[in-house]
Amino acid sequence: MSTPEHSPLGKDTVYAGRYDPSLLFPIPRADKRAEIGIADTLPFHGVDIWNAYELSWLDLRGKPQVAMAEFRVPALSPQIIESKSFKLYLNGFAQERIADAAALAATLTHDLSAAAGAAVGVQLRDARADALPVIDLDGHLLDDQNIAIDHYGPPQADFLQADTGAMPVAETVLSHLLRSNCPVTGQPDWGSVQIAYRGAPIDHAGLLRYLVSFRTHNEFHEQCVERIFVDLTQRCAPRQLSVYARYTRRGGLDINPFRSSAPASPGNPRTVRQ
């Protein structure tokens, strides 16, 4: 079965040390989307951007090669790929002799697209400091507000309010206080979230309380971002909205979901926490 409980998460693992695309464990998006009222027609565009920092293989003479990899999984794909299975799959290349980086990228594209059920973009980068520079996310920081918070889960959409009597604004806000937990292992996932919108001004105190209310919530990265997008849409009715979460890495991978009311191709700005 393709449910999180049947994935490699939380289980003892034997590293086979060989290439094996069957290690990839797809999980359907539909069930979690149904929980937040998403049916066949998606209310957003988007992509899940993965960065891999532990990718290595052998050239045809047996010399190890290393690279960083960027993977873009479209939000319209019917499946996500469970992250531990992704790590096991990538580690399977460590002793594989491969002609060049282009041949490796072609294999990755084929296997990941098959697992996700849609075309996955793959880009390999040299392991240099300028390959993925560290920057700060744009936006007004919500975290400096002097407010009391005492609710840490489940996510509470009632905290979200917009002043519909005020003039519309175009605003980008940012918080580094996003935390949620793996639904299988309970391990924490830490992230920063950037929200850009046009519409009635959203109350900053309520928005921060809402984001903190994910702190003990059990859900995958992609599902959290979609929940944030849907809750903001329903409670605040912005004319335009995008939600971009940059999570810290675990097992050599970071996952960065982006959801937007308009088609967009976000950058991949590595933050200082990544």
TrEMBL record:
- Record-annotated residues binding substrate? 81-83, 221-222
Which InterPro entries does the entry link to? GTP-CH-I_C/QueF, NADPH_dep_7-cyano-7-deazaG_red, QueF, QueF_N, QueF_type2
Q: What is its main location?
A: cytoplasm
Q: Which GO terms describe its molecular function?
A: preQ1 synthase activity
Residues that hold NADPH according to the record: 83-84, 250-251
Active-site residues, record numbering mapped to chain: 182, 189
Sequence ranges assigned to domain NADPH-dependent 7-cyano-7-deazaguanine reductase N-terminal in this UniProt record: 15-124
Coiled-coil annotated residue ranges, if any: none
Q: Which UniProt keywords apply?
A: Cytoplasm, NADP, Oxidoreductase, Queuosine biosynthesis
HAMAP family from the UniProt entry: QueF_type2
The similarity comment for this entry is:
Belongs to the GTP cyclohydrolase I family. QueF type 2 subfamily.
Descriptive protein name: NADPH-dependent 7-cyano-7-deazaguanine reductase
Species annotation: Rhodanobacter denitrificans
Q: What is the lineage of its organism?
A: Bacteria, Pseudomonadati, Pseudomonadota, Gammaproteobacteria, Lysobacterales
Q: Which gene encodes it?
A: queF
